[in-house]
Amino acid sequence: MDRAAKDVQIGEIRSRFDKMSAAVFVSFQGMTVENVSKLRAEFRKAGVEYKVCKNTLVKQALKDVAYKDKLDDVLLGMTGIAWSFEDPSAAAKVLKAFRKDPAGEKLQIKAGLIDGSVLDAQGVEDRLATMPGKNELRAMLLATLQAPLQNFVALLAAPAQNFVYLLSAKEREGK
After folding, report:
1. Domain of 11?
2. What CA–CA distance (Å, rounded) separates 23 from 36?
3. Whole-prediction pTM value?
């Protein structure tokens, strides 16, 4: 590969890291092509971009960032990188689910990256994969906004409901 092609790839990798909300580094050593293809399909469904990158190119792309020294141990051997752009937990959730499948038993999570902090493999599975996703956060926000209105409607309906209970009790008492 000539220098111009390397510079283009370094620029592409750097732009992915600049736009991402989270990234997960994985080792796919020992996996079959069929299983890696399944993993790529799962990533596509979740809106995650996955690419196998040369470690030296990734190091060059990240030479100006503060956390680059923490990734020296991660960028060894075969490395695939899954970038999440909208939902920070999307890649970690796909990887956690895929590792439970027999097809993903050889897949190893090396590390994760979110907001400039590096997570170890356990942190990716325990913290990043369990974070609520974009749609879950929207549902929580909607529930929070609806709760006061639901309580208000219940308070408005309570006197009429209590009156119906009173009439029902009088009717049973009269029988």
Report:
1. 3-131
2. 18
3. 0.73
Which residues are CB-contacts of 11 (< 8 A; sequence separation ≥ 6)?
61
Please report the pLDDT score of residue 1 as a whole number: 67
pLDDT mean across residues, the chain: 85
Find the radius of gyration of the CA atoms of the chain: 25
* Whether 81 contacts 25, CB under 8 Å: yes
C-alpha of 157 from chain center: 42
Residue ranges, the chain, pLDDT below 70 = 1, 175
49 and 124 belong to one structural domain: yes
| Secondary structure E strands in the chain | 22-27, 48-52, 80-84, 108-114, 117-120
Residue 44's pLDDT is 92
